Amino acid sequence: MKNLFSSLASIYRNIKSKIAFYPTLFALSGLLFAFIMLYLEERGISGYLVENIPILVVNNGDTALTILSACITGLISMMVFSFSMVMVLLNQASTNFSPRLLPGLISDHKHQIILGIYLSSILFCIFILFSIQPTGDQYQIPGFSVLVGILATVICICAFIYFIHTISQSIQITFILDKIYLTAKDRLKILLERESEQSTEFPDTSTWKEYYTETSGYFRDISRDPLLNFCKDHKTRIEILPVRGMFALQGIPLFRSEKNLSKDELKGILRYFHFAREELVSNNYVLAFKQIAEVIAKAMSPGINDPGTALNAIDYLTELLRMRMLKSDVSYISSEGKTYACERAVNFEELLYNLLASLRTYCKHDIVVVQKLGKMFSYLQEQQANESSYYNVLDREAKRLLQDAQQSIDNKADQDVIDRMAKELKIDLSQDSNKKLL
């Protein structure tokens, strides 16, 4: 039963991230509501309202047909216009910022819910339209359902106004950066809370049996509780080899097990490893670092040349790096003081190098952005870290940045600024020091 729930939860997470999830739910609910209203019409709800509250009922067949036809036409036009704007947003985000931002924008629930409201209202009005008999008497016309259709149209107009408000926000880079930051921050908080409750004792796994992937895709997640229960039930421990977010090719080592597993046991444990064809920040916080770094690099490219966006993005990057410094490079899955599984993360040195490698290329010629990055390093060196080696990593990357900037900038005043930053960061930019670093 637990395995079934785990599989269903995985399927639900996959479906929920699709752009059609909420629209489909709303469309089905609109269809169901239309049949419920038709059933109530057969039970005489409109006839009752005609006699008691006639103002709520449209009792002319031609009028009802005209109203619903106008509502359906207007709603379809509104829906087409609204989601043409969504496509414009996605195209602009891809062109000006980074194509990697698109999955996060597509999975925005607000836009999906608005599309669902449109679809449910259109389907409701269409099915009510089919039931109208223009030549029937006032008791045969679904007058109350027509009123509900009018109210649904009014709700869609309000949703359209809200959509215009949200789309004007979503197209702003500060909004996009803030969303990425908050999603990654929530994910890091969860991981830090888990680390505080875990035991960190784990044996050497070099002699353990390796097992391989049977599929390919981005290694997105694992079902922690079912995996923990599996290890307890089969009296084994495992080491998960791929890093979350990496693209796992079919046939590469997936995990090592302390105990040799049978085919049935292997088939059971593989269900707890989840792969996907797309990356989301909510599943892999490292993607947030990549996205923000790409925004900075794109903003500083010659075609865009937008240092203001780069400066804003560096602020968000600084705060996420501060949180990452609190996290260990290895995560454990423990229960009752015993560790049953360990999982690798992108280590801090590799993460920072990959970020700064691209930033050095695009930012080293701009003294303002270099200053901002220098302040980032100065701030991070004063923060708490899970491991003391993180400070050495910061020193190395800061030195590489300032050395590249020193070689790229010729202005004497700017050179003096770089020298002052080096003194503040206690970095020696001499050639002898550079050889020692290499």
UniProtKB/TrEMBL annotation:
UniProtKB keywords: Membrane, Transmembrane, Transmembrane helix
Domain of life: Bacteria
Membrane-traversing stretches: 20-40, 64-90, 111-132, 144-164
Keyword Transmembrane found: yes
InterPro entries: DUF2254_membrane
Protein name, per record: Uncharacterized membrane protein
Native organism: Salinimicrobium sediminis
